């Protein structure tokens, strides 16, 4: 009965709304969703980095484990629980493919979410993004059913318009035993920094700025901290010869997200490279990703992992998250921080309060 009432309300509001971006944030539309997101909101936290609201998190274990978006974390991390209390958090582990990080606060008795698979969720179903209070952040519909990403969307990259680029498309180079031995340049932009320096398609980069390059991901990670105009040294294997190059990094071309960012529609810095996503037209700000998303029955379908377009938010589905949780808790992925928390932290009062 309640679901039918919601559906009728949605139809009436949608008819009177001029644009989808306005529908997702329309207070008349958000109101009826309060009971639907109520339980998920009790499992949603605000994460602060260096005293700034940065991202949301989702409680996944009553013992203080919280999932969030890894690429947004930096500096000292605090977690604000639904009751308003704040605790310093430690990074336990991170998973690059999904951009998930597991945090830990020394608090017991938290309310974790229970995940429900999205495989049978049809296109057009209504969804709501839960926030750390009783109001939903946004509502919208499933635009594209759970799918694997392809093309450039399948490549994990941090979008930063000031980042430095070589103008290459690398892939892993392997030896006869299948072991990764460098980053092979499968394509080079004709006017890019690499081409100007003399690098060629087929060259295998084995060192960047004196640091070894064993995979294409290693090279991308090293480049991530560099800016356009930076001068870098590269060692590359061509046939059986090692050649040395010096190049000045270029500026990345603006993509649609960079342009939209400049127009006031802030997208997530990392919005590609996920193994699977559920595509929605939810309007979720980049700083509000990391929280749970529910259907009309209140079932948690996954976590908002990226604001990918002006009216496009991607959900990392439950069937991707659930199998990772035991390994994240066990530390089988890279440990990002080994900081020891106080055994009984006192609530932290935010500055100015």
TrEMBL record:
GO terms for biological process: proteolysis. SMART domains: PDZ (SM00228). Residues 155-228 form the PDZ domain. InterPro entries: PDZ, PDZ_sf, Peptidase_S1_PA, Peptidase_S1C. One of its GO terms (molecular function) is serine-type endopeptidase activity. PROSITE patterns: PDZ. Residues 1-21 form the signal peptide. Keywords: Hydrolase, Protease, Signal. Pfam families: PDZ_2, Trypsin_2. Belongs to the peptidase S1C family. This is PDZ domain-containing protein. It comes from Gemmata obscuriglobus. The lineage of its organism: Bacteria, Pseudomonadati, Planctomycetota, Planctomycetia, Gemmatales.
